[in-house]
Amino acid sequence: MDPFLTLLHSFSSSLSDSELSSLKFLCRDNIGKRRLEAVQSGGGGFFSILLEQQLIARDKVSFLHILLESIKREDLVSQLNQFVEEGEVYAPDDQPDMHEKPMEVICDNVGRDWRMLIRKLGVSEVKIDRIVVANPYNLHEQLAQSLREWQKWKGKDAKVSDLIKALRACNMNLVADKVEQ
Question: What CDD domains does the annotation carry (predicted)?
Answer without folding.
Answer: Death_FADD
